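Question: does this match?
>
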Amino acid sequence: MADQAQTVTNWTPDQLPSLEGRRYIITGGNSGIGLEAAILLAKAGGAVTLACRNPDKAAVAAARVKTETGSEPGIVILDLASLASIKRAADEVRASHEKIDGLINNAGIMQTPQMKTEDGFELQLGSNHLGHFLWTGLLLDRVEAASGRVVTVSSIAHKFGEIFLDDLMLETGYTPTKAYGQSKLANLMFALELQRRLTAKGSPARSIACHPGYSGTALQSTGPTGFWNFIYKFTNALMAQPAEKGAIPTVLAAAGDEAQPGGYYGPTGWQDAGGPVGDAKIAGRALKEDVAAELWSKSEDLVGLRFPS
């Protein structure tokens, strides 16, 4: 477990302070964990913006947020598989918001067949990690202006991931599970490395990571094909917790007073799949600072952005 200044156990959203006057931007806010987190944050008084790829789905999600909370969320169209889309969306956010209290990197895809993004990146690493890396870099000053938080959603799958520094795009030996594990390990390593860099430069912003355990969302049906798609139909029915419960670690990381810089939060029950939310276990491979620094450097080169030091 990463060094955290205090122990968090059995955290629930009713422990949130008032979020009046605070702005939260959530990628993948149109469904699953992202949508449920948006609702919980809005219920506590936060203003939310849903950053989504599909305008129609975003509109449906925004209507649900308004119906359940009375607060009308903002919408920004964002495709994390396109560097051009990320830059356009970041420009739109910058024009609308001087400060961001919580930049929540939630959107993700899982175990897809071998495909590439618009810019030629392996799809899962490109969307889950590189897209959020650029998104964060373009908006970090807005988070710093609010003394806010960058929240990155990883997964228990990070425990089985490996960073292939000599073949990040997995041109050799691609499997859907191998690519997913790498992308979610990259998410967690990015969050931890970002906090190290924020600390080094005396930034008021904080980087915090979380995972949703095993939560039933569209993630298991829209990415995997064949065997895995078949298996998830059964495991979702038997084992998965509702998306609303899976969103609790995200809400803690984004707005809970208990969340610490460099912390990692998630369900603490059997295999970290469900149960009470608190300090989550970090695999030793995620704590390798030399690998994280090299991944950071390669990510900057790939997306064409240098984070200010």
